[in-house]
Structure formats: structure tokens, C-alpha cells
Design a protein that fits this description.
The protein is built from 3 helices and 28 strands. It is mainly beta and 396 residues long. Strands 13, 16, 17, 19, 24, 25, 26 and 28 form an 8-stranded antiparallel beta sheet that branches. An 8-stranded antiparallel beta sheet has the order 14-15-18-27-20-21-22-23, with no helix packed on it. Strands 2-9-3-6 form a 4-stranded mixed beta sheet.
């Protein structure tokens, strides 16, 4: 068993309601359990928790929070908020402790706790809500296997530190098919953010005022208004999108707040606030997308603007994706889950190949966005739901 280090309780540990669970006399696979995170922490937990282990134990008295209980009566592993699992074994009636521990992609505990539950002959589900924890993840150079929840050395049987792990614990890889521009903001300094897609021509971004940003090893923070721009036209994006009739905009970001608006531009291919090919932005506590299509009113501004639901844009690391398919169907995803769907009329014949690609602002400098930039990617096709989920699982 891996021992967690320096784990401290941040919130009420765990709440569970025994609504009745099948016992040895039932025909099912044993008590089932449905996992939720506390409503005050749901987005933070969904942002980071990629593995949840649940255990029935003899009692909570012997449980050390943050550690897996040994021995356990039954256990199950589920992934993400709202998913249901089954303990998969027959149990006798009695009183138990119900313990849960959630981990992030680096094996750090982000939620845990234990409460008493009672198993009886009635049928039902154990509903579990986890409160927040903070715990240290794998030490360098170890990596986390989300398949097992353990830290390990080397690549065999372990997942990458940024992903949720694939079959056999292998790292989840990002979708590469159709990728035409990629910015990972991992240069660590300087005035240039490189296009790492490997697709020619390269559309590197230049930071207009590097004094207004702070570099980290794996991301960049926009502290005050500046512009990241290709300067010259982002021609490959237009040519590839017009050829396919489709596009995907993807961003891993952490907004500075949930009040910036305009919409504040996260990424845009545009000339000014009124003329563009596409845009992904933030409007207060929602994300917004615009996309130029021939048949729409105010088409040259990418109208109409579509928005995610209220509360989806918060100062938390978030995965936001907008897809436009050749048939005009569009989807906005947040953290791997479809949030908003829309059908847009018209093709891409009116796209303008002279516009630059601009990040964290409008080309005119009057729609600034503040926060952390972890990844921006553009594809010349509409990723499907499984591919969006794959990129979410892979992490920034």
C-alpha cells in the first residue's frame, strides 16, 4: 500500500446515506454506490479527481484518512463525479464504515473520509459525497498509475503525471489526427510561444509585453493585459478549415476570476472586436464561442455567440472545447462533458485568410483575458465526444 504524505483535512470529510443496499439474499452483485462531490467543491473536485476508491470496512475507527484501509470487506473503483459502481460481492447484514478516497492524476489525495453505514435486506444505493482533502502526490521521478492508484518508477504499467491512464495503466495520449496548431506554454521564459503542432507553416505567437506575464515550467500566467499574436496571417488554419468545413478549438486554462467579460478573448482569429473567423472567450462565469458561417446574421463577427451554462467559468483549471462540424452542428464541452449544443447555418467560404491568430486579447488590445494558459490546440475537424474526453483525460 502506498502511504500518503502530509495530508491535511480541508473540509467536512465524507457524507453517506444508506438508502438500503442489497445483501447476501439479493440477486444483484452486492451494494451499489453513487459518487458525488460536495456542492461547494464540485468543480474543484471534478477538475482534479480522476480516480475514486470506495471501501466497506468493519468500522471507521481503524481508518487513517488518506490511506487505503486494510483489510476491507468490499471495494470498488469509479471515475468522476456522479458515476455509479457496485461492490460486486454479497454481504451479510450489519453495520460498516463506508470510506472513500479520490486521487488526482499524480496520485495525490484530493478527497477522503469515512462514515458509518448499515446494510440491510432492502434494495438501494449508497450515495456518497466526498469532501476535499489535499495530499502530496508522487515524488520525482515516480509517476502515477491511475489504473492502480500507485506511484511507480519508469513507464511500465504507470500513467503519465498529466493523464488519467489508459488500458494497462498506460498514459492517455492526446488526439493527434487533424491537429494543425498547438501551444503548450512550457517555454519557461522569453517572448515567443512556439507552435508545437509540427504542421507547416509554423504559427508561433509573440508576446507584446512580456512584463505582464509570469512563466512557470508548464504554463504561463497572464497577469495584466497584453496580446499574444502570430502577427502575420494564420493561413494554414483557414486553408485546412475551409477544406474540411470543420474546426475544433481546445483550451486548458485557469481564469483569474469569473467576472471578466467582453467576451474576454482566450483565443481568436480576428481583425478587431467586430470581425473574425472564430473565437473562444469568457463572459463572466460562462465560456463563449463565435464562428463565422455564411448564412448567419452578423456572420462576419461569428454571431450568434453561444455560451456554456452559468457557473462553468471559474478560477479553476478547466478544459474547454468548441467543435464545429461540416454539417453546422456545434458543441461546447467543459471538462470532457457536453455542455451546450447548437446548429449553425452556412459554410466557411467567407473566412478571411489575412487575420492573425490572437491569444488572451483581441487584435486591437481591448478584450483582454487574464489567467493561466496551459494549452491551446486547434484541429481541422470536429472532435467527437470520445476524443474530447480522451484529451480531457490526458490533461494539459
Amino acid at each position: 500500500m502506498r502511504t500518503q504524505r502530509r495530508i491535511s483535512l480541508l473540509f467536512a470529510v465524507l457524507w453517506a446515506a444508506a438508502l438500503g443496499a442489497g445483501c447476501s439474499s439479493s440477486s444483484g452483485g452486492g451494494p451499489s454506490v453513487e459518487v458525488f462531490f460536495d456542492s461547494n467543491l464540485a468543480r474543484a473536485a471534478r477538475e482534479s479527481a480522476v480516480r475514486v476508491e470506495l471501501y466497506l470496512v468493519e468500522s471507521c475507527a481503524g481508518v487513517s484518512l488518506g490511506d487505503r484501509p486494510v483489510p476491507d470487506v468490499a471495494s470498488v473503483t469509479v471515475i468522476r463525479d456522479g458515476e455509479t459502481g457496485s461492490f460486486g460481492s454479497s454481504l451479510t447484514n450489519g453495520s460498516f464504515g463506508l470510506y472513500g478516497v479520490a486521487q488526482d492524476a499524480n496520485c495525490a489525495v484530493v478527497a477522503a473520509g469515512c462514515v458509518p453505514v448499515t446494510i440491510d435486506d432492502s434494495t438501494g444505493t449508497l450515495a456518497v459525497t466526498l469532501g476535499s482533502f489535499s495530499g502530496e502526490g508522487c515524488p520525482a521521478p515516480e509517476v502515477c498509475s491511475i489504473e492502480t492508484g500507485n506511484c511507480g518508477v519508469g513507464s511500465g504499467g504507470t500513467g503519465g503525471a498529466g493523464g488519467a491512464g489508459g488500458a494497462g495503466g498506460q498514459p492517455v495520449t492526446r488526439v493527434e489526427a487533424g491537429l494543425i496548431a498547438l501551444y503548450e506554454f512550457d517555454e519557461g521564459g522569453g517572448t515567443t510561444v512556439a507552435d508545437q503542432s509540427g504542421v507547416s507553416p509554423s504559427h508561433d505567437l509573440t508576446i507584446a509585453d512580456p512584463r505582464n506575464v509570469t512563466w512557470s515550467t508548464d504554463h504561463l500566467s497572464v497577469d495584466s493585459a497584453t496580446i499574444f499574436s502570430t502577427g502575420s496571417p494564420a493561413t494554414k488554419i483557414v486553408s485546412r478549415a475551409q477544406a474540411s468545413g470543420a474546426l475544433t478549438m481546445e483550451a486548458w486554462i485557469k481564469p483569474a476570476n469569473d467576472t471578466q467579460a467582453g467576451p474576454a478573448r482566450i483565443v481568436s482569429m480576428s481583425l478587431d472586436p467586430q470581425v473574425r473567423n472564430f473565437m473562444l472567450g469568457q463572459e463572466a462565469d460562462t465560456y463563449a464561442a463565435r464562428f463565422r458561417a455564411d448564412g448567419e446574421a452578423d456572420w462576419d463577427n461569428g454571431s450568434p455567440t453561444i455560451f456554456t451554462t452559468a457557473g462553468t467559468a471559474a478560477p479553476l483549471l478547466t478544459h474547454v472545447v468548441h467543435t464545429h462540424a461540416a454539417d453546422g452542428s456545434e458543441v461546447l464541452y467543459v471538462d470532457g462533458v457536453e455542455d451546450t449544443a447548437f446548429a449553425r447555418t452556412g459554410g466557411l467560404s467567407q473566412w478571411d485568410a489575412t487575420y492573425p491568430l490572437v491569444v488572451a486579447n483581441e487584435a486591437t488590445g481591448d478584450r483582454d483575458w487574464l489567467g493561466e494558459l496551459h494549452l491551446i490546440a486547434i484541429y481541422d475537424r470536429a472532435l467527437d465526444a470520445s476524443e474530447v474526453d480522451q484529451n480531457f483525460a490526458a490533461g494539459p
